[in-house]
Model the fold of this input.
Amino acid sequence: MRLTERTDTLCTKSFRDKDKNLWKYISEKQAEGKKITPQNVAGDVGYRSKKSAVGILTGEGRQKGKKLEILPFRAKLGYSQKEAGYIPCEDEDGELRYVRVIRRSVLKILIPILLLLVLIAGGVFWYLSQQGMPDLDDSAIAYQMPDGMKNEDPTQIMMPGFGTITLDAGTTTVHAALANPEGNPCYFKYLISLSDTGEQIYESGWIEPGMAVTEWDIEKELPEGEYPIYILVQTGNLENYEEAMNQGAANATLVVR
Done:
């Protein structure tokens, strides 16, 4: 199939081929009034294909020396491709035909890149936001100290007091509040050990101010009796939990009955 370029006043766009030749074409929007159908489209240009050319488009007038291979018409364009417009031409019988110009869609190329960048940025933001965040104890609940006590001085750390803690024999679940009083400038972490042996029987996660762990399990069942325990309270700055502040400690008695 041999086609010849045809002049049209609507040809305001230009397609440059691999030989640097310019081919005037009608933009897709302007082509809407032309009622161009696949039946009068001879083929496509502007994309790479392993298929053989279906024809040759030649220039007119002083442009007769330029030639352009026409590729098969693609019924379905690729994701990154878009229909840019049509080069008007005529066939060997003088009938009006068109060669469709295919270009890359910059927007469609950019969208997945932008989405990827957003995901990466979101991941980086999430990662950075987790830095300085402690592993909070998921069993902690909102808790008010007796008589509504709270820390009124942000330069100080309020520590709760402990006396006797009871535990039902044959169980490991202790019902006693390990609290971080409201108003404290730090996280709390409780480590409880048997005073006589130094064996640690419990460690909490980090507890926020105004929260407490009210039920916690020790590492093993203990026979009935009274056990002196050592309660160590580690602290971590609210801005960066890895920055320790003044820690506290208390002696108490665990009564198993």
User: Anything to note?
Assistant: The chain has a mean pLDDT of 90. The chain is about 10% helix and 40% strand. The longest helix spans residues 106-130.
